[in-house]
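Notebook entry, structure prediction.
Reason for the run: the old model in the group folder had no record of what sequence produced it. Starting over properly, with the input documented here first.
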Amino acid sequence: MASAKTSCAEDNLLCSICLDVFRNPVSTQCGHNFCRTCITTFWDKKQKYNCPICNHLFQTRPDLQVNTLLSEMAAQCRTSVQVKEQPCVEPAEVPCDVCTGTQLKAVKSCLVCLISYCQTHLEPHQRVAGLKKHWLVEPTDRLEEIMCKKHNQLLELYCMIDQVCVCQICTETDHRFHPVVPLKEEYEVKLAQLGKMEAEVQQMIHERKQKIKEIKDTVKCSKADAEREMAGSVQVLTALMRHIEKCQEDLNQMVKERLKSTEKQAEDLIKELEQEIEDLTYRSSEVKQLSHTEDHLHFLQTFRSPKNPPPTRDWTIVEVRPPSFVGTLRRSLGQLEETLSMEMKKLPDGELKSVQQYEVDVTLDPDTAHPRLILSKDGRQVHDGGVGKEVPGNPKRFTKYIHVLTRQSFSSGRFYFEVQSKDKTAWYIGVAKESIDRKDESLMTPETGYWSLFLDGWKKGLVFTDFPPVHVPLRAELQKVGVFVDYDEGLVSFYDVEARVNLYSATGCTFSEPLYPYLCPCNYDYEGTNSSPLILSRVNQTD
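New structure, fully documented this time:
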């Protein structure tokens, strides 16, 4: 203000009494100029009438006349000062629609003129009687949007049927029979929906972050399994002659490739999850920004059809399947089995430990048991009763073979269970697919849906039931058999739990339906041999 006044003072446009730009300037007979109000107030306090500047004494109170030229110059100067005092418009502010050159910040918008005004250009609306009747609102750059294009009235209601903003005249014409509510009421409803949407988006972000952690943990375990498997292979293979060094190299390469494949799968899933998190975070930002607006109309117009969160994958069914290293070393050394038999005894028991972590709790299903079989009350033991008993007819029941299935079945992933076979001279232990023939005799091979080991007490041999049968070396009496299945990998492995060695692994299996663990205790003879039960046992965690 001081700089403006100084500029005007140089042109003699400042009143010597108020030191401000002249307002209604008048001239005295001695030639000096003052604001009419200033000189009138000055003389009202005096008994004699003299000039405040030259002290010239007037005999009677002068009849003051407006100095027209000076008044026009002062008005121009005052307008210039007001313009300089008003702030220029910032990027996020509404500009004056009348200003030329430098645009000033608008202080009001007129819903009649559909123009926004700065303080200077708003003055006629505050002074002229006709303009005073105009509807002034807080400055907005969306004047045309907040007016009904059809009736040129303010949009102040919300149609619940068409979900659009309407004016009062609209409710009497096109929306006559439609329920309408004030904008603020609908704003509050939509704001509540927006809050719920924000919570859902945040939950989706949280779930995806948890999935990333789960994937990383799986990869970490996979690395540990890979390192353990490679360490075991080194312990055995380094003791061999030079002609099997290539076998070791091939095995390590296979393990690394499987691990690399798992890591690549995990990296791809993590990238996808991170992209969804980025999309959801952007969506969250939009939602938050919209939820913070106080402009009811803008909110409802923007919210008109709330966007659903961006399309995302259902991550609850996605998992990184750790690579299976079970039996890889032995498969690599299959053709060298005779040469390596002594070295294989030195193989550490890490393989068995790695599969025992997939232990499942299974119990026998009496509805599938052959009539000769006797099951314990807890469903964990079975033995041959010698004679058939009367049992309810059931399509699931075996009537030719004295077999029994578990209640539980498995259609994916990995599972492991153990069966105690102490004092038995014959048995079948393995898994069977759901559709096996339970009423007629058939070969028990993978082609008919059986993957099992058979202990032949008469020949004192162990056989994998295939066609032709695969004879498995039996080094000592089997006390407990472990069975591991990797459904997705197509692998069935059998273990001597006490000796902690792999007995046999069937690879390249094809599973297309649920698999059931199954037991066959075989018949006992009249001398009582083979009368001991097969027992589903739990893994000994102290081993």
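Summary: The CA atoms of residues 272 and 313 lie 9 Å apart.
The old model has been moved to the deprecated folder.
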